[in-house]
Specification:
about 300 residues, 2 domains, five-stranded antiparallel beta sheet, Arc Repressor Mutant, subunit A, five-stranded mixed beta sheet, DNA-binding, Jelly Rolls, alpha+beta, HTH-like, RmlC-like_jellyroll, globular
């Protein structure tokens, strides 16, 4: 599975890019014929187009006025049945994390870093005009290559776009209104740690220790907020990484087992089959590429 890097796909030195989906289909649809991932953040607004979008091995039907917020490392591929229209915004950590509260914004809105509860968001067309206006301002600023403080202006406009999205999609975000802010904060810190440490730490006690709580309290809190215990989140993240690595093609079970800290290949194979119901070899056999896909 290929990993696209922002500095490789755009000549811009801004750590940022904005294109229409039509332009990307015309100029970059042949970059790869397999699922791929990015090392940067991607916002995709599909205004029109039919087909499917596969994200981390979940397949979603495309609908008009659908928004996708992809975090670094998420594997995805589009399969369009009709020509798409819309926008794709790409930016990396260097672009957005200049100010610490910007990173908190990406996490706290619930739009990004939601591997365990990933889903697209949809809007009625009547509610998209404000977002369209912000995007037009972003596009004008992006094309103004000689602008003073251009990156600062783009960063501010993207931040405004994300805040507006968070407001519009608030009713579609994972519900947390029944939980105290303290519990939600703990869960977000846990999920952040899992993303950073899942290949070295696979026990709830490891994370509880880092978060200064007891394992039972962490498990209960995570289950209360998300519907699944902390242990299940860890397992899901490990399995997801195994599937991502399997898509590299020639990576063996032994290599993946070593990368993810399993004792040996036998332990790795048992872990995978217990969770997925199939052996790793069976999973690899079903990874044959399907029809032509367009990638962003």
């Amino acid at each position: 599975m290929k990993t696209l890097r922002l500095e490789e796909v755009t000549p811009s030195k801004l750590h940022f890019e904005l294109n229409t989906m039509q332009w990307l289909e015309e100029h970059r649809s042949e970059q790869s014929n397999e699922m791929h991932k990015h090392d940067y953040y991607v916002i995709i607004w599909v205004k029109e187009g039919t087909g499917t979008h596969t994200v981390d091995f979940q397949q979603f039907e495309l609908h008009p006025q659908t928004f996708w917020f992809l975090s670094p490392g998420q594997a995805h591929a589009f399969h369009f049945q009709s020509p798409p229209s819309g926008y794709v915004i790409s930016f990396d950590s260097d672009f957005f994390f200049t100010y610490e509260n910007n990173r908190e914004l990406l996490i706290d809105t619930g739009l990004f870093h939601n591997t365990f509860q990933f889903k697209p968001f949809t809007l009625d067309t009547s509610l998209t005009f404000g977002l369209e206006n912000i995007l037009q301002n972003i596009q004008a600023e992006y094309q103004n290559r000689d602008g003073i403080y251009q990156e600062d202006m783009l960063r501010s406009l993207v931040k405004m776009f994300l805040i507006q999205c968070a407001r519009l999609f608030s009713s579609q975000l994972a519900p947390t209104h029944d939980e105290s802010s303290k519990s939600v904060c703990l869960v977000r810190r846990f999920q952040d740690l899992v993303e950073l440490r899942f290949s070295q730490k696979n026990k709830v006690a490891d994370y509880a220790d880092q978060l200064s709580v007891t394992p039972s309290h962490l498990n209960d809190t995570v289950k209360k907020v998300t519907g699944q215990p902390a242990s299940e989140h860890i397992k899901q993240r490990v399995i997801l990484e195994i599937k991502r690595k399997a898509n590299f093609g020639m990576v063996s079970a032994k290599e993946i087992a070593f990368d993810l800290g399993f004792e040996d290949e036998a332990h790795f194979s048992k872990y995978f089959k217990n969770y997925t119901g199939q052996t790793f070899s069976e999973y690899k056999k079903q990874l044959a590429s399907h029809s032509k896909r367009y990638f962003f």
